[in-house]
């Protein structure tokens, strides 16, 4: 099916749904209209809380205003405006998943994950660090800027509120997808706490508008490493190298094998 036919089909679908919605405003079905409004408001509020602080929140606000304008146009009988706004919503439905695939993938990845991070075996711990090392190595070769912060203690979760909170298994592809996208999640760090990804897009500061510097010269990273006993992995698009910060030490120009070895020595094999 072509994109044009898909848009037309979606447009007809939304028009039919809006017709049913306004029919429900009849006195005998008023309770149904009220329920529709409550459910839609709850969904928008839930999405707002989840995506707050990311670029996609601006789109959600626009969709809410467009929907409100559509309702007003329908009540006033402005059929042309109603038709145009319907197809604007269709356009957003088609384009938003493409433009914001990073945030959406993170959202889906964090759903339905509860307590499975507890009771991690040694093999699973080693496997998680292996996934991180492979992902960072790929990003370095692809000359992508990235930052992954790994800690064993749960304190790192305190920094999750500076980004988008998640509860995601550590997977190489997931990390690569985040930093290969143009989304806001790629402008902050991925946080790995207790061998689970607990946040993406973390700016490491509660101050609004803070821009995270992806470089070993950033003194904030040393403070974070020391405070949370965390290993911080960095890649830069200009150098194609892997650097690792742990405490006061900075290890530069690491291979994938050296990165994994340092991660395990720093976090797993300490005496």
Describe this structure as you would to a colleague:
The protein has 271 residues and is an alpha+beta fold. It folds into two domains: 3-99, no CATH class; 118-267, YojJ-like (1 (3-Layer(aba) Sandwich). It is 54% helix and 15% strand. The protein has helices spanning 3-23, 30-51, 56-76, 79-99, 101-110, 122-141, 172-180, 219-228, 256-267, and strands at 146-151, 164-169, 189-193, 196-202, 231-235, 242-246, 249-254. A seven-stranded mixed beta sheet has the order 2-4-3-1-5-6-7. The longest helix is centred in the first third of the chain and has 22 residues, at 30-51. The relative contact order is 0.11.
Strand order of the largest sheet: 2-4-3-1-5-6-7
CATH H-level superfamily of the largest domain = DNA integrity scanning protein, DisA, N-terminal domain
The percent range for strand residues is: 5-15%
Cα end-to-end separation: 61 Å
User: What is the global morphology?
Assistant: elongated
Q: SSE string, helix = H, strand = E?
A: HHHHHHEEHEEHEEEH
Any idea how many domains?
Answer: 2
CATH topology of the largest domain: YojJ-like (1
Helix residue percentage: 40-55%
Poorly predicted tracts of residues: 112-118
Largest sheet: 7 strands, mixed
For the secondary structure, the number of strands is: 7
Class of the largest domain, according to the CATH hierarchy?
Answer: Alpha Beta
